[in-house]
Write a structure and sequence with these properties.
It is built from 24 helices and ten strands. It is an alpha/beta fold.
């Protein structure tokens, strides 16, 4: 193939490729390879095309062939990106370190190596390369942000905040940096500082927009409550995040009610009955009310309540002992149906909402050690996502499934009241158990949520909760061994 024809085919292919017509582009790329099989540039571009079509094995074959012919930095970068999107971070790291060896270290490679080490949980080397990236480009917001996030994973929130603040030096309106800054202040148990940053959270904005769409006339004229005197006013507050957040912040409902004439709460419908049973002087919505039936003077997203109350750090943890109870009639019915035995009763749950965090999912096999405990009956409280894993336990052990009886959280509370201990991941069940002052063991992943703070020997939110942190490379089964040892000691008392 002469040079002119190669250029004609290449230009056509590249134009099609750039326009997103990958299949047609490959036709012209392959025409070139039929005549020039060792054309490294075209081999790399076909590899990119295969990658875009998710033909990853073929992509790796073409890109690797290109590298064997010519050690071009761009080819290595393409290969590293392929390994990244395949979640093969070991191979990605090897490729990026090869780039550093052959071509030196620029900002992009330093950042990429830092990220690959982070994915592999090698925080020390990740830190080293993020710092190199910052040294090369001191104005890189992404390097500061990722290093801050790394320090959070490192359990070093003070250092994390140092770099989140550097993000704000670059852009004072960086909402993402402000949000994670808030969470790190929370982690350090500095709610006085953290709550003001927490107001930038996206779930607050989403809740406000959702309510404004639902009640456009009311929201056009009624202000957000920021702590003003509402002793003769009606306050409307509404959920914005998960069940666990709503249950944890339900501790503030009595204080809120004492400040206003009338309090209306819209929780997730699954929580309505439980809150209605516990706070009879509060109006709790099941579903959306018609706009003509809803009247209020102020409104506020539920997670903004501590900020509006100006609670600060000391006021956040009110009612550590107990602020929710189960309906006695439902407790009795559960007793008769499921719990009429003299065994030590343990309820378990291994998975919550995985939309935000998958690290909190516990391998269901980790619970197997519980079934060897004498005079013990285990109950599954797992619902919805993850419930299919119940069969793995039921096929081997005597376990009673409670999940089908849970019409809403008021029924879950009634079941919890009949249990001696709850063992679960970081999920809404843990918050409900803690709010009811029931013994609960929460199993936390190494990169755990901000709300459990830095001193895990003590649970600030719930007096009855004990926290078990998985070490960086520790299995859930090993964590469960520690829980079981504590159960054995408890049963001896």
């Amino acid at each position: 193939m002469d040079r002119e024809l190669r250029k004609e085919y290449f230009d056509k292919a590249f134009k099609l490729h750039s326009a997103g017509d990958v299949a047609e582009a490959k036709i012209f790329y392959k025409k070139i390879l039929e005549e020039i099989p060792e054309d490294a540039e075209v081999l790399n571009l076909i590899g990119m095309s295969e990658m875009q079509q998710k033909n990853y094995d073929k992509a790796e074959e073409f890109i690797s062939h290109a590298i064997n012919i010519k050690q071009e930095k761009y080819f290595y970068e393409t290969l590293a990106h392929l390994y990244f999107i395949r979640n093969n971070f070991t191979k990605e790291l090897e490729t990026r370190l090869e780039i550093e060896k052959l071509f030196g270290l620029d900002y992009e490679q330093a950042f990429g190596i830092g990220l690959a080490y982070k994915k592999l949980m090698d925080f020390e080397n990740s830190e080293k390369y993020y710092l190199k990236a910052i040294e090369i480009n001191p104005k890189s917001r992404d390097a500061y942000f990722n290093l801050a996030n790394l320090y959070t994973n490192f359990h070093k929130p003070k250092q994390a905040n140092e770099y989140y603040l550097k993000c704000l030096d670059i852009n004072s309106d960086d909402r993402e940096a402000k949000y994670f800054l808030a969470l790190n202040y929370f982690r350090m148990k500095d709610y006085t500082t953290g709550l003001k940053y927490f107001e930038v959270r996206l779930c607050r904005e989403t809740a406000l927009k959702t309510e404004a769409i639902t009640y456009p006339k009311l929201f056009a004229n009624k202000p957000v409550w920021n702590g003003e005197d509402i002793s003769d006013k009606t306050l409307y507050t509404y959920y914005e995040a998960g069940f666990g957040d709503m249950l944890m912040f339900a501790r503030y409902i009595p204080t809120l009610k004492s400040l206003c004439k009338r309090l209306i709460i819209k929780p997730q419908v699954q929580l309505s009955e439980l809150l209605r049973e516990n706070f009879p002087d509060v109006e709790v919505m099941d579903y959306f009310w018609d706009e003509k039936d809803l009247n209020f003077d102020y409104h506020i997203p539920f997670l903004s309540i501590p900020y509006a109350l100006n609670l600060g750090t000391e006021g956040m943890f009110m009612h550590r002992d107990k602020y929710l109870s189960a309906n006695p009639d439902k407790v009795k019915k559960y007793k008769e149906k499921f719990f009429n035995n003299d065994k030590f009763k343990i309820g378990i749950k291994w998975q919550g909402n995985t939309y935000y965090e998958t690290a909190r999912v516990i391998n269901v096999d980790a619970f197997s050690g519980l079934f060897n405990l004498e005079n013990t009956q285990v109950y599954s409280a797992q619902t919805f996502e993850g419930a299919e894993e119940f069969e793995k336990l039921a096929s081997k052990y005597n376990i009673i499934d409670l999940s089908n009886s849970f019409k809403d959280f008021s029924y879950t509370a009634a079941a919890i009241e009949n249990l001696d201990l709850i063992i679960c991941n970081d999920t809404s069940l843990a918050h409900l158990a803690g709010a009811m002052h029931k013994p609960c063991a929460i199993l936390l992943p190494y990169n755990y949520n901000w709300r459990w703070h830095t001193d895990l020997s003590y649970c600030d939110w719930y007096e009855s909760v004990k926290l078990y942190l998985a070490d960086k490379n520790e299995s859930w089964a090993s964590v469960m061994d520690r829980v079981i040892a504590d159960i054995e000691n408890l049963k001896k008392l």
